[in-house]
Design brief:
Helices cover about 45% and strands about 20% of the residues. By secondary structure, the protein is α/β, with parallel strands linked by helices. Helix 3 packs across helix 10, helix 6 packs parallel to helix 7 and helix 7 packs across helix 15.
């Protein structure tokens, strides 16, 4: 009787050793709803104690499992209840103090990133929402691990154009306050349409309203594994065979993530939440979504056919992954961040990939305009137009879309921003110079589409 499948064992070894497969993140989502108080100092004390209670062993146990199974776990993260809700209870709304408390706790716990400095304002602002949003630039400039997100649109509510315009200004300020780091603050800030509360990836992770007290969500990744699998096919393999190969590979990736997630949740004695099977690239050579397009037969990312290739990739990854886990969630699909993908960086630098092409690709990818560096003197109204376009794509298509734009201070087309690590580097991309000002300054709310009336 054959106990072990030698080919499957070799496949798994090759995924890790040769093709950059990893568990991109284990993210502990923690509810802070019981941390409210009129006194911001009490709020901060409660937050610190609660994070220590639930996350004190996250890094240790994740490292143990990494060693036990020889599967790299790149990031250990925490996501918390949107802080606009927690700080709103305070008589003195000092959101920066709360941000610094979150950052300090993350540092003490050995956490790489902490998300949830967030607000959901698709239909309007409360005083707490505005307080948090206006504090974002200072909060991101005075912390290291904190990430922030704001949801400004949904398919049910439409697009809050007042929030879109406000966030365009906040993005500019966040970049300017971190000018000595190429605008790093803006790289840790994302604007969403249809954000989800179980997303384990940064910068958009937060603990949603329907989540339990504490839950573990897993984000897997493996663009290099998918690229290698496609490269092994005969160059004349038809689209059906190609899609099937991607599905088979996504199944293997997801199964490995499910194993790690279940083992870690057992050790932490908290529920296992979801596995997000998004293909999240890194600047490492071979770990690139753009290079998957080349393996499919395109000369480079940006060629005509790129959007179709991405649509098939995104769909096949979801179909394959869903067979390996009953709890697939988050975003799940394929990410196309420019600065974090070696192939995308090259395509943008060579002019193969334009801003407009990236926008077209977001119609079928998992997120949106991600980690794109633009000239620092780009008007905030132009950035608002970019956000509005992306929110419209998400709203109409009933999908999550996002914008993470970096208006790099004192830099222009031809220059490069460098963040290092997973955030990588990116050439400054050319943007359309036509004005959006009169349109975005109208304010109000773009109504939800007709298909929102589906109750």
């Amino acid at each position: 009787m054959k106990i072990f499948d030698e080919n499957l064992i070799l496949d798994t070894i090759n995924m890790i050793k040769l093709h950059n497969f990893d568990i991109r993140t284990v993210t502990l989502a923690i509810s802070l709803r019981d941390c409210i108080s009129e006194d911001v100092n009490i709020v901060c004390d409660k937050i610190q104690r609660k994070l220590e209670k639930y996350a004190c062993n996250l890094v240790k146990y994740a490292n143990d499992i990494e060693n036990d199974y020889s599967i790299p776990i790149v990031n250990k993260r925490i996501a918390v209840t949107p802080i606009s809700l927690i700080g709103e209870s305070c008589s003195r709304k000092d959101y920066v103090k709360i941000a610094q408390t979150l950052d300090k706790s993350a540092k003490n716990l050995g956490i790489d990133f902490i998300g949830g400095f967030s607000a959901l304002v698709e239909k309007g602002f409360t005083s707490g929402d505005l307080g948090l949003i206006e504090s974002i630039p200072e909060a991101l400039a005075t912390t290291e691990r904190l990430c922030s997100s704001v949801n400004v649109a949904t398919s049910k509510a439409g697009i809050n154009m007042d929030a879109v315009l406000k966030m365009s200004e906040i993005i500019k300020q966040s970049a300017e306050l971190t000018a000595d780091k190429d605008g790093l603050g803006a790289a840790k800030l994302v604007v969403f349409c249809n954000s989800v509360g179980d997303n384990p990836f940064m910068a958009g992770a937060f603990c949603g309203y329907g989540e339990p007290e504490c839950v573990l969500n897993i984000g897997v990744s493996g663009p290099g594994v998918v690229r290698a699998a496609i490269a092994d096919l005969h160059k004349d393999a038809d689209m059906g065979i190609l899609a099937n190969k991607i599905k088979q590979t996504a199944y293997k990736i997801t199964a490995a993530g499910e194993l790690v997630g279940r083992k870690l949740s057992d050790r932490l004695n908290i529920p296992f939440g979801i596995i997000d099977l998004s293909l999240a690239p890194t600047p490492a050579i071979g770990d690139s979504v753009a290079q998957i397009f080349q393996a499919m037969g395109l000369e480079h990312a940006g060629a005509h056919g790129t959007t179709a290739a991405l649509a098939m990739l995104n769909d096949a990854v979801k179909k394959g992954g869903i067979m390996a886990s009953s709890y697939v969630g988050g975003l799940s699909g394929a990410f196309i961040p420019v600065s974090e993908d070696a192939g995308m960086i090259e395509a943008a630098r060579e002019g193969h990939l334009t801003f407009d092409k990236l926008e077209a690709m977001t119609c079928v990818c998992s997120v949106g305009l991600d980690m794109i560096a633009i000239p620092g003197d780009t008007p905030s109204t132009t950035i608002a137009g970019m956000i509005a376009d992306e929110m419209a794509i998400g709203m109409i298509n009933k999908k999550t879309t996002a914008v993470r734009i970096i208006p790099a201070p004192n830099k222009n087309v031809g220059d490069t921003v460098v963040f290092g690590g997973l955030l990588g580097e990116a050439p400054i991309m050319r943007v359309n110079h036509l004005s959006s000002a009169n349109f975005v300054n109208r304010g109000g709310r773009i109504p939800a589409p007709i298909h929102s009336l589906n109750n």
